[in-house]
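SAMPLE LOG
Freezer: B-3
Tube label: C17
Construct: single chain, 265 aa
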Amino acid sequence: MNTAPSLLNLQADFARWMLGERGLPLPEVVAGNGLAPAARLQIYQNIIFNNLTAALRTDYPAVLKLVGEDFFESAAARYIREYPSRSGNLQDFGAAFPKCLAAMPEAATLPYLGDVARLEWARQESYLAADAAPLDAAALASLPEDQHATLRLALHPSLRLVESAHPIWDIWMFCQEVAPQRLNLSGEGQALMVWRDTRQLVMQPMAGGQREFVAALLGKKPLAVAHASAVTAESQFDLTACLHWLLQTGLITGYSTNGPTWVSP
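STRUCTURE (predicted):
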């Protein structure tokens, strides 16, 4: 006697079929309504792949420009199969695409591609991140000097730091040009800060002590440790100027002097 599959098994088979796995009994329980069951399933699969590929196009326009339509379509199809969505939010889907691109043998001649994709995903995360009110400089100025050694600074939730051994800022800018000039890929590696100012994304190249300082703050290091890292990278690092810039741009949103307790506006 034939037993109807459970709902859980039916859903699992449907998901596996949509990702390209054949040899499943799924067509046996699908009503074709004028089409062969497998053909009707193929319609659903096409819709899913088209929608997910469109989401990747939106998230990774620079990657698309660098590799062209055919390569992007192939990479997207591989990504959809190997990194199936685990979220009901389509905006989360492309998170592992940089990892997928970096591991593709076909992209070995483009060693910077994964890092450019990481930059584009950082832009996506930054744009969608929570908001936070900037900290008033007077709040820091009023702290007793004996608390400075353990002081930690909270940075804006939208702030991301992307570092690469390749000139990813130059490459990203190249992709924004309508009629791009020749791209020089022999430049030094670059690091970029990405954050959201109101609803606009801002990107700024970072280097030397400033880069090390921000990286340490993002890692929740005390101010004294972040300062030491910056000075190691750049002996003439100006702590006061860097803090003033972070405050002026609204990127410092709170502080802590005693572990997990944070003070914010």
